[in-house]
Design brief:
mainly alpha; 5 helices; about 75% helix
């Protein structure tokens, strides 16, 4: 493989991963903001279990917000960019736990979303470690 095609392949990986990172950050950021800041009484209208576990929904929301920030900020600033694949891997765990929760509740329609979002997060984690790592900023 020539140097030019290797460089092009690396650029495609880099851009594709950034697109995935931004899309997932928006998704998790919106979901996390909603779960963190919406009053429990409003959340319970769409998710009745929330009334009996308000701390759980807040924990999930804060976790999703942290994951959204972790997908973008370390890579964009190049300060500790290894946190980006770590955040993506943590969001894979969030999706695995969400799938288990939905399975226990018999909410099978939610499983494809958990699978697809988890797979994208896993691809980002793997891609940022193996194919298009972001180098840490050099001190000035």
């Amino acid at each position: 493989m020539s140097t030019h095609s290797r460089d092009r392949k690396g650029r495609i990986w880099h851009v594709s991963l950034w697109v995935g990172q931004v899309l997932l950050a928006a998704l998790f950021g919106f979901a996390g903001f909603f779960k963190t800041f919406t009053p429990i009484s409003e959340l319970a209208q769409g998710m009745p279990w929330v009334a009996s576990a308000p701390f759980l929904i807040r924990f999930i929301g804060i976790s999703e917000l942290a994951g959204a920030l972790g997908l973008v900020l370390p890579a964009a600033t190049r300060i500790r960019p290894w946190l980006t694949p770590l955040a993506a891997a943590a969001l894979v765990l969030v999706m695995v736990l969400a799938a288990g929760f939905h399975l226990l509740r018999g909410e099978f329609a939610s499983l494809p979303v958990n699978f697809v979002v988890g797979a994208i997060a896993a691809l980002i984690a793997w891609g940022r470690v193996r194919h298009a790592p972001i180098l840490e900023r050099r001190p000035v």
